Amino acid sequence: MTKRALILFAHGARAASWAAPFERLRDLVAARQPDADVSLAFLELMSPRLPERATELVAQGITDLTVVPVFLGQGGHVLRDLPLMIDELRAEHPQLAVRVAEAAGENAAVLQAIADYCIGALADGR
């Protein structure tokens, strides 16, 4: 049986409070996907970092991993840093099937939800 995991991948920050919305997102996703391990991992400044978290998941028997970059755009971190990390993961854990989703902000449904929020904020300002 395939054991699945989903990592929400974010940048990280020095202030611990910065992670709060990402933790809420993780909890919302986990509640809707109880058959998968849903966790957060960070590029820098916070832990766990992506390679550490993936290694922990492999040690727990995960064989199928999806990484969702929770970034609004595809800057250098998504275009350069993340692919390098993914290549290293695949080399270190050849038994692990790894997929990477598009950056959240590149998805049409996410952009529509943000647009709806912005329009709602404008309407609330009357």
Automatic annotation (TrEMBL):
Q: Which SUPFAM superfamilies match?
A: Chelatase
Q: Which UniProt keywords apply?
A: Lyase, Metal-binding
What Gene3D superfamilies does the database record attribute to this sequence? 3.40.50.1400
For this UniProt entry, the molecular function terms from Gene Ontology, in alphabetical order, are: lyase activity; metal ion binding
The identity of this protein, by name, is: Cobalamin biosynthesis protein CbiX
Which organism does this sequence originate in? Answer: Pseudoduganella lutea
